[in-house]
Write a structure and sequence with these properties.
The complex is a heterodimer of chains A (124) and B (391). With 124 residues, chain A is an all-beta fold. Chain A contains no helices and 10 strands. Chain A has strands spanning 2-8, 16-22, 38-44, 50-54, 57-60, 62-75, 87-88, 92-93, 95-109, 114-115. In chain A, the strands form 3 sheets. In chain A, strands 1, 2, 6 and 9 form a 4-stranded mixed sheet that branches. A 4-stranded antiparallel sheet of chain A has the order 3-4-5-10, with no helix packed on it. A two-stranded antiparallel sheet of chain A has the order 7-8. Chain A is extended.
């Protein structure tokens, strides 16, 4: 039987991270690869409303406490230590995922993004 | 490539937002260098599982190639499937929410936040019944027939430890242990074995005969004397195991252990013994033989046979035959199909014992019948039949 173990990453309680939910997709300008790219600025109004500025858009959202929290699982790669290789069942090594973090709230942006108009090109 | 405070300010101006209306902290988000290379995923939990992980406990996902995967905690089992989201999920490690931030305007701060990952699906869990049928099947490969059986002496046959079973059954440890108890399995020399039914009846017979010869009350059967008197005939552990299966253990004020024999369980076992070797039994003959076969002082009742035998009250003569719910399919649709193949129309009273175990959490028999069967009236009685044509 295939068995996948899900266990804590180390000592203590896993850290708490946050989820952000957006409609649609994110693309980078000029199709630059995403790693290292700037994504946007996240502000909060004094009332605590999240405001996200991505590219030429502003989005207004809200903070939601998740009824069903998430765990961020990371596949555990084998290291040299013998006890890191998890063997189960009929002697076949199985996969192990570590609980990297828990997510209990999300910032959700449901409204349509508002475009930011920077300048109106003059007609030639 | 990191944004500066001036760039943030400029962006705010372009967006026509006023810093005074905002909290002083801004998170400047960027994609981490390793965003596309990580092997990560999101697992949707509930409060119980979340606390479970927070306390350092583990979970395991298990399944054979031909099974759907399940996730097990130490005491519950869940179906796992991958759910897609239409929205994009962005995983951010260091992001504070307003309740965690100060709104002191004099402390403007810019937090560079790296996005750990993106996801548009997650593992979704749904609590389910553990898949227990395999357990009995495995243990029945090599039932225990007593220490004197040729098989035992030759040490033949497959035997399983609890670890072996956990590696083969899609259930949590707690659910597995509970079910081992239900099917009368016991641990012999470190292996979980199920007593062969005839052997179990032999043990029960020794006990009930002793109760009779000693004129004990069924509700006060002393363990010590049983072991002394019957320990010469069969292993003491097996005598005690049989008492645990068919009675309730208790201790009196003097600290002595007694068992209250369960009349229903004893009568039911004897019914099984009578029915297992026949296709059908004439109902009135059966009732007579059955009552005569149970220990004197015990009373047989039809409701003791729920989920074990089915009576046909429409045939002449009326008959009864063995139908054990545990022999039926674990799959709901398959179960209903086989029940409707056996008998076209069922009353709720007759079918209930054969579908009770299919009910999900908070699901009633009524709801199950509404979903999987069609209702009609027959001679003023509500009956259920198949929703689809059954051959």
């Amino acid at each position: 039987m295939v068995q996948v173990l899900i266990c804590s990453a180390g000592e203590g309680v896993p850290p708490e991270w946050v989820l952000m939910e957006l409609q649609g997709e994110i693309e980078s300008r000029e199709n630059k690869p995403l790693p290292g790219c700037v994504m946007g600025d996240l502000h909060y109004t004094k009332e605590g409303i999240p405001v996200l500025i991505i590219g030429h858009h502003i989005l207004y959202g809200k903070i939601v406490r998740l009824e069903k929290p998430f765990a961020v699982l990371v596949k555990h790669t084998d290291t040299h230590q013998a006890d890191d290789v998890v063997e189960m069942g009929e002697g076949t090594p199985s996969t192990c995922y570590l609980v990297r973090a828990l997510i209990k709230k999300k910032i959700i942006f449901k409204t349509r993004p508002k475009p930011i108009i920077t300048n109106v090109p003059k007609k030639v | 490539m990191m944004r500066t405070a001036d760039e943030v300010k400029a962006t705010l101006e372009t967006a026509k937002l006023k810093q005074e209306e905002l909290m002083p902290t801004v998170h400047c988000m960027s994609f981490s260098e390793s965003i596309t290379s990580g092997d990560y995923c999101l697992l949707e939990l509930n409060d119980v599982l979340c606390k479970h992980l927070e306390s350092g406990k583990s979970l395991v996902i298990k399944g054979d190639k031909d099974e759907h995967a399940v996730l097990c905690s130490e005491d519950k089992t869940y179906d796992v499937k991958i759910a897609d989201t239409s929205n994009l999920l962005i995983i951010i490690p260091d992001c504070k929410t307003p309740d965690q931030l100060s709104d002191d305007q004099s402390i403007q701060s810019l937090v560079h936040t790296q996005i750990y990952g993106l996801a548009n699906n997650y593992w979704e869990l749904r609590k389910c019944r553990p898949k227990m049928k395999k357990l009995k099947k495995l243990l029945m490969e090599n039932p225990y027939e007593g220490p004197d059986s040729i098989k035992e002496k030759a040490s033949e046959g497959l035997k399983y430890t609890i670890e072996d079973l956990l590696n083969r059954i899609q259930a949590s440890e707690r659910e597995l242990m509970d079910h081992l108890h239900v099917i009368h399995a016991c641990k012999i020399e470190g292996y979980w074995r199920i007593p062969d039914f005839d052997y179990e009846m032999k043990l029960l017979n020794h006990i009930t005969q002793l109760v009779d010869s000693e004129s004990w009350s069924f509700s006060k059967v002393p363990l010590k004397v049983c072991l002394e008197e019957l320990g010469i005939l069969e292993p003491k552990e097996m005598i005690e195991h049989c008492l645990d299966c068919y009675g309730n253990r208790y201790t009196d004020e003097a600290g002595e252990i007694y068992f209250a024999l369960n009349e229903d369980k004893v009568c039911r076992a004897i019914a099984q013994m009578l029915l297992q070797n026949v296709v059908k039994f004439n109902l009135s003959e059966f009732q007579e033989v059955w009552q005569q076969s149970v220990p004197e002082g015990m009373t047989t009742r039809r409701d003791q046979l729920k989920g074990l035998a089915l009576m046909d009250l429409r045939s002449r003569p009326e008959t009864i035959f063995l139908l054990k719910v545990e022999d039926l399919s674990e799959d709901t649709v398959e179960r209903f199909t086989s029940l409707f193949t056996l008998r076209q129309k069922w009353t709720e009273a007759d079918i209930s014992p054969y579908i009770q175990d299919l009910c999900g959490e908070k699901q009633t028999i009524g709801a199950l019948l509404t979903k999987y069967a069609r209702c009609s009236m027959q001679n003023g009685v509500k009956v259920y039949n198949s929703r689809r044509p059954v051959s």
